[in-house]
Fold this protein.
Amino acid sequence: MTLPPEQPAPPAIANSGAIGVMGLQLQEGRKIPRRQVISWALWDWATQPFNSVILTFVFTALYLTSDTFLDPAVAALDEGDPAREAALADLASGLGWAITIAGILIAVLAPVLGQRADIAGRRKLWLGGATIALVACMFALFFVQGAPQYFVLGVSLIAAGTVFSEIAGVNYNAMLVQVSTPRTVGKVSGLGWGLGYIGGIVALVLVVVATTFEWWGMPTDNGLAFRVIAVGCAVWTILFAWPVFAYVPEAPPAPRRERVSFFRGYVVLVKDVIALWRGSRPTFWFLLASAVFRDGLAGVFAFGAVIAAVAFRFTQNEVLIFGVAANLIAGLSTILAGRFDDRFGARAVIIFSLSGLLIAGLAVFFLHDAGKLVFWIFGLVLTLFVGPAQAASRSFLARVTPAGRESEIFGLYATTGRAASFLSPLLWSAFILAFGATYWGILGIMIVLAAGLVLMLFVKAPAEHA
């Protein structure tokens, strides 16, 4: 196999335990074309509406977990009625269980699919296939009508979209080493996350404008407005995702790695994990630590708007405005944190961000009775730290990933995260079930973040990557 002249031939690494060169090191001294960097980062922008508009602030929070999907007799009860509140909590809990099931599927599939993408040199192919499937799920949400019998269809499509989004993200994250160098990886990773959040702002603003003008006379009964929003998110993804496929080159196949059947891939995966333990110990321990704290980060976004709408009684417009402000703060802080990442190290950014999240989250929980102002202040403080923690996690792993195994390692990254992904939704659902109020779910998420912070304190980057 002949590689482009600017790329030195990577060393033999797979299945042998001889893991010595990190993939990012092969980019040392290269000048990455700016168009490739921007094209790669735009995929975050393109797919962010699924996370911001559908999964967090609009479709699930204002529609799928609202009284629209309650039994009409229960929905007719007064606000604050225990039976009505319990029914709304059941919807929030049902969403949590669906996301838990999605997490299990991701944990099983992600590393082997990533491994196959590395071996065949088909990261873009897998990225494209998963992106198309995600778009299909968003289009299908149009058929989730506003009636209780459609709730299962809605949460099923949300769960499926989560699976496809994560599988796409495995290969997208692996491509980070193709568009960055050791000196720029933090900045590039932060750019991607930052553009994603800003894309979420634009999408949410469009929703606010449509709501303000009452959808220009369009009928909104039967959940039609929310169903149209889902279609709009699908179209958005199509419009902005294509540059990564047009301008970012495909990675070459991993050298000296045998192609095996899908199920045989799990046997190879076990051997590779053992080799990772022997030859790249920081990578191994970081995968375990990040599994926990990233699940806490996912919980913040998955259930944040539900907390605002149900626990703090935010109106629809207030949730949307909060979403715009949250994405703006998260986007700017993430882009800025990318520079701190390259200067002080990803580990320092992660630990600082997790500490800030814990302080803000506990303030939301303990000051809950003070009303909306608490969530406006400390909920926005939460968003200040989520993006930097996410971006720094990606750049940390890129720095310590063996060459030729990027998709597989980021597949393990997704798997270890999803292996623990039951924690936030489980504790969220369990605390709500035990105490009968949605705001108790906050404490469950904070417990997960605290555990992740403690584990991260024991993770050390090797000196050459610190």
Notes: The radius of gyration is 22 Å. Residues 366 and 420 are 26 Å apart (CA to CA). The first helix runs from residue 34 to 57.
